[in-house]
Amino acid sequence: MANTSDLKNGTVIKFNGDLHSVMSVEHRTPGNLRAFYQVKMRNLKNGKTIEHRFRSGEEVQLERLEQKTYQFLYKDGNNFNFMENETYDQIHLIEELVGKQGEFMKEGQEVQIIFHNESPISLEIPPHVTLKVISAPPGVKGNTATNATKQITVETGAIVNAPMFIDEGEFIKVDTRSGDYIERVKV
User: Fold this and answer.
1) Which has more confidence, 152 or 99?
2) Which of 1, 27, 101, 168 is most buried, taking the most CB atoms under 10 A from its CB?
3) 141: Cβ–Cβ under 8 A, 6 or more apart, which residues?
4) What is the per-residue pLDDT for 134?
């Protein structure tokens, strides 16, 4: 067991039965009251951010996570299948665990899978990926004066709002966290 003085940004603790990643820690000592730690943390299961006030010296349970590099193989119904690069072991994750970022994964792409006690708890893909545009309606002449956008489909099947000048066959960079268009890429 550790205590509150061991909390740092990025530390993972077990709080109220769930795993939480510490985002910020602030030690406060108000006037004639007892010192405390104000901790902002993110629930690793549902992504919600909470704040909690811990007493100074209170015991907390630190958790150890393991991160491994896997290669995305294919999607099979609601399962995403991955292969570990070193041992060639295959693992499948359900769609709820992968989340929205699964829309931007290409076959062969490397991802980081985070494990807790040998079971996967989350997946991280690179923050930006380059994808080929497979379907883009033509832009209407005269709409380029404003920040007009159109919905295009990329090679993974995801729909992205992009500027009117993007055409089929071009490559674009997409932010995987928000699904936003970033820029056109020359390949």
Assistant:
1) 152
2) 101
3) none
4) 92
